[in-house]
């Protein structure tokens, strides 16, 4: 596996900044179950953050090196109790898309022609230029 260039590493650090940790290494340390979870997370995301709880810096450095060696991953950053690792996903095989079966056309059913009654015009309450229907006493006020 080729090593990351400084520019690639810097780009991945920027991408990892917005990520939340997907795996937590607890007090039991780096168990086979944790390694399996990290492998599954790398398959799904390529770039992951791992949070380590309760370990010394030397232990975290050793775990990072061990993870990268076992999982063919690249270390991106180790800052505090957070490890960031990257593994490029293998290219996906293109599966030919299944074409949907052709739909059978239904012949259109014609409705019986019926006469539609004409609509009545809407009643006009007021027309332009007509006087108000208010009483004369109301007009003065």
What is the element layout, followed by pairings?
Elements: H1 6-16, E1 23-25, H2 32-45, E2 47-52, H3 57-71, E3 74-79, E4 82-86, H4 136-140
Parallel strand pairs: 1-2
Antiparallel strand pairs: 2-4, 3-4
- What's the mean pLDDT score? 82
Which strands sit side by side, in order, in the main sheet? 1-2-4-3
Gap from first CA to last CA: 94 Å
Radius of gyration: 36 Å
Order of helices and strands: HEHEHEEH
Major sheet summary line: 4 strands, mixed
What is the helical fraction, as a range of percent?
25-40%
SS class: alpha+beta
**Low-confidence blocks of residues:** none
Count of runs of 4 or more consecutive helical residues: 4
The overall strand count is 4
Sheet-strand content, in percent, reads 5-15%
Note the overall shape.
Answer: elongated
């Amino acid at each position: 596996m080729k090593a990351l260039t400084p520019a690639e590493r810097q780009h991945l650090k920027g991408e990892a900044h917005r990520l939340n940790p997907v795996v937590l290494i607890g007090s039991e340390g780096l168990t086979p179950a944790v390694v399996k979870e990290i492998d599954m997370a790398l398959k799904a995301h390529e770039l992951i953050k791992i949070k380590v709880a309760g370990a010394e810096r030397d232990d975290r450095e050793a775990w990072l090196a061990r993870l990268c060696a076992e999982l063919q991953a690249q270390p991106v950053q180790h800052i505090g109790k957070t490890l960031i690792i990257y593994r490029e996903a293998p290219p996906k095989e293109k599966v030919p898309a299944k074409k949907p079966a052709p739909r059978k056309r239904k012949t259109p059913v014609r409705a019986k022609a019926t006469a539609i009654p004409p609509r009545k015009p809407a009643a006009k309450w007021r027309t332009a230029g007509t006087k108000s229907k208010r009483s004369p006493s109301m007009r003065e006020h």
